[in-house]
Design a protein that fits this description.
Elements: H1 2-36, H2 39-43, E1 46-54, E2 59-65, H3 66-79, E3 84-93, E4 96-105, E5 108-118, E6 124-133
Parallel strand pairs: 1-6
Antiparallel strand pairs: 1-2, 3-4, 4-5, 5-6
Length: about 130
């Protein structure tokens, strides 16, 4: 019995870091993209169609092609260049990851909401991205 418990513990410790690392890498890539205002790097994580909301620009698309979303984000980042971004809340539940953060630019603050879903091949893609002026 002790051998089985030891084996399970070792397996858990051995497997867990890879999963946490992968999820952390995804979150870090999204955060870095937002911190740098890099629409290209961010759009590389988009699903084929995403929900994009930017309230200051009157952008409210429920299903927008990823390539079009990238163009809109490029314009947004030019108009509102980032001075800082940080996640304030993250949660994972049933192959979904929810994150909220604060995007700072030239005296303005935006609340950012990111919804990612896991694909059948176990990669996370962004399904929704919202920027709301705070």
């Amino acid at each position: 019995m002790n051998t089985l418990v030891s084996f399970m513990f070792t397996l858990f410790v051995w497997v867990l870091p890879g999963e946490v690392s992968y999820e952390t890498d995804v979150t870090q890539a999204v955060g870095t993209s937002l911190r740098n205002g890099d629409a290209s790097q961010l759009s590389a994580r988009f699903a084929k169609t995403i929900e994009l909301v930017i309230d200051t620009e009157k952008v409210d698309f429920q299903a927008l092609q990823a390539t079009h979303a990238e163009l809109i984000l490029r314009s947004f980042f030019r108009k509102y260049p980032p001075h800082g971004f940080q996640f304030v809340y993250q949660r994972a539940l049933d192959k979904r990851r929810y994150s909220t953060g604060i995007y700072e630019t030239d005296g303005q603050v935006f609340s950012v909401y990111v919804l990612m879903r896991q694909t059948p091949d176990h990669h996370y893609v962004i399904n929704a991205l919202h920027f709301r002026k705070g």
